[in-house]
Amino acid sequence: EDQVTQSPEALRLQEGESSSLNCSYTVSGLRGLFWYRQDPGKGPEFLFTLYSAGEEKEKERLKATLTKKESFLHITAPKPEDSATYLCAVFGGYQKVTFGTGTKLQVIP
Amino acid sequence: DGGITQSPKYLFRKEGQNVTLSCEQNLNHDAMYWYRQDPGQGLRLIYYSQIVNDFQKGDIAEGYSVSREKKESFPLTVTSAQKNPTAFYLCASSIETNEKLLFGSGTQLSVL
């Protein structure tokens, strides 16, 4: 069965303090890895899809990278509006999407 | 604008009552999904549908039922058999099965 583990569970940063969120996975034949952002009481908002090891994607202050065992979401010079829960999910050989439990990010002004 | 509309935003269920959550999409997506989200847990798949008039059980289908009579609509009924229904319910859709999922804004279901 596919598994996704995200760390840390929670992260508190000062505004401008760069950091990374980790998503470790075990999957039978990775077909895609997704990153989402979720604000309290709202549905997840799609950020990135990564398909193969070595792939990178960027959007504003966010950069997602992928290896054969994990993905990182790098946040450069975060702002308070980046505060949210970030979810990682994998689409594997069992033909289903498996989600991690998320990393709750708080950026303090 | 294209998107996924879930209603209501908040719903309360009395013991023994069935309740139905609405999900409508105007993205012309073939696949639709229902997930349940509990604090501290990842999203768990309840049901999904790849085409009209066809749907499959997910990991936690017991106590739930769905229908897919129209491409745009995928309502979820939480039956009285679901003993712990309090959760945040998310509807999603994708162009093809398990491609990038786009989510609605969710329905918070609570038990009175």
Index terms:
heterodimer, A: 109 residues, mainly beta, six-stranded mixed sheet, five-stranded antiparallel sheet, 0% helix, B: 112 residues, seven-stranded mixed sheet, four-stranded antiparallel sheet, globular
What does this structure look like?
- Chain A is globular.
- By secondary structure, chain A is mainly β.
- Chain A contains no helices and 11 strands.
- The model of chain A has no long low-confidence stretch (mean pLDDT 95).
- In chain A, strands 2, 4, 5, 9, 10 and 11 form a 6-stranded mixed beta sheet that branches.
- Chain B is mainly beta.
- Chain B contains no helices and 11 strands.
- In chain B, the strands form 2 sheets. In chain B, strands 2, 4, 5, 6, 9, 10 and 11 form a 7-stranded mixed beta sheet that branches.
- In chain B, β4 and β5 form a beta hairpin.
- Chain B starts with a strand and ends with a strand.
- The interface between A and B is medium-sized, with 23 and 23 residues.
How do you describe this structure in short?
The complex is a heterodimer of chains A (109) and B (112). Chain A is mostly beta strands and 109 residues long.
The proportion of strand residues of chain B reads over 45%
Question: What is the β-strand count of chain A?
Answer: 11
Count of extended strands of chain B: 11
- Most extensive interface: pair and counts? A-B, 23 and 23 residues
Mean pLDDT of chain A: 95
Largest sheet of chain B: 7 strands, mixed
Question: What are the low-pLDDT stretches of chain B, counting only 5+ consecutive residues below 50?
Answer: none
Briefly note the structural class of the backbone of chain A: mainly beta
Low-confidence stretches of chain A: none
Helix content of chain B: under 10%
Gyration radius of chain A, in Å: 13 Å
Taking the alpha carbons of the first and last residues of chain B, their distance comes to 36 Å
Radius of gyration of chain B, whole Å? 13 Å
Number of DSSP helical runs of chain A: 0
Strand content of chain A: over 45%
Topology of chain A as a string of helices (H) and strands (E): EEEEEEEEEEE
